[in-house]
């Protein structure tokens, strides 16, 4: 049943799409961190930027490996 795509026939996001989402998370978090906000909001933005950076490294590495293996 793992190969069953359901009624929509859609696949999940690939590594390239996840990489772009991670980059967007870093950019948006860093833009919001420049605003004058409460301490908890600044900390949330910092966590979002750090998580996005980890995602960029992980999904970027996986994307490059998947492209290398497809040749």
TrEMBL record:
Entry keywords, A to Z: Membrane, Transmembrane, Transmembrane helix
Residue intervals passing through the bilayer: 15-34, 40-61
Domain of life: Bacteria
Name the UniProt record assigns to this protein: DUF2530 domain-containing protein
Species: Streptomyces africanus
The organism's taxonomic lineage, starting at the top: Bacteria, Bacillati, Actinomycetota, Actinomycetes, Kitasatosporales
